[in-house]
Fold this sequence. Notes:
Helices cover 54% and strands 10% of the residues. The protein has 340 residues and is an alpha/beta fold. It folds into three domains: 8-140, P-loop containing nucleotide triphosphate hydrolases (Rossmann fold, 3-Layer(aba) Sandwich), CATH 3.40.50; 143-213, Helicase, Ruva Protein, domain 3 (Orthogonal Bundle), CATH 1.10.8; 241-340, Up-down Bundle (Zinc Finger, Delta Prime, domain 3), CATH 1.20.272.
Amino acid sequence: MAKLELTCDDILKELRAKQYRPLYYLMGEEDYYIDLIADYIEENVLTDEEKEFNQTVMYGADVDIATIINAAKRYPMMAERQVIIVKEAQAIRGMEEMSYYLQKPQLSTILVLCHKHGTLDRRKKLAGEIEKAGGIVFESKKVRENQLPAFITSYLKRKGVDIEPKASQMVGEFVGTDLSRLTGELDKLIITLPKGLTRVTPEQVERNIGISKDYNNFELRAALVEKDVLKANRIVKYFEENPKNNPVQVTLSLLFGFFSNLMMAYYAPEKTEQGVAAFLDLKSPWQAREYLTAMRRYSGIKTLQIIGEIRTADARSKGVENGSMSDGDILRELVFKILH
């Protein structure tokens, strides 16, 4: 049976319960979760008085593995434990030498290694030795675009705020999968909510993040699904007139993701909301409704052709065989080819 990996929430739950591990190896492509765990430890494990002598923050480019191990072996001063946080741990050479420390780790030390933009090879013995010594190897993975609405909803819920599904889609599609930037935008939204209100609407997103509730990628996709030619072209015109808030490559990326998923949906064993949602790994069945509608509007062959056209448009937006086409021209031509 495969070992169940701890999530960020699992680790934070342990920390809040004051259940500490001797070593946290935090790694991966998504900075947000690494920072969330490391910042919690830095801010909450020790009191302000204890931090004076017992909390150390190092940077991987400035220290070697021997310095880290020697610091970890020290005993705390006038405190139950010490905290050592090593940022940019990916720059440390000879990390495998940590094995010697792990044979008998100092249990009064909490050692946090933050390895960003990469991972420790789990096939090597160090990962197993960390876990054998009671430590944690946590991989912070990038959130996929189809997971953004669930992330947004969950993040706001923890802050006591609800968000309408359309508003969630708008924020996710506009900001993208950079969770640090996304949570910053969400925090701004919370601050701008009128007193007494705890629900984010599309109108509030429009006012405070600068996304039009009627002219955005979410609405363009909906227009294409419904084959609403007039609405689709109005949105393209708006995008052309407001290029700063509607970069064509973001639109192309989102359309590519949708039609790629649509291509996969044809292979779902059950063509129901629940069946398609499960097959595409969507967080809720309502997200599958657009795919079911699109399957009635577009054949599998047409969908394959659309994916090819999006690839061509993407290449042109980057200057390949572009001629003198503007971003608006590229998107207008693509929408025409999708709809006809």
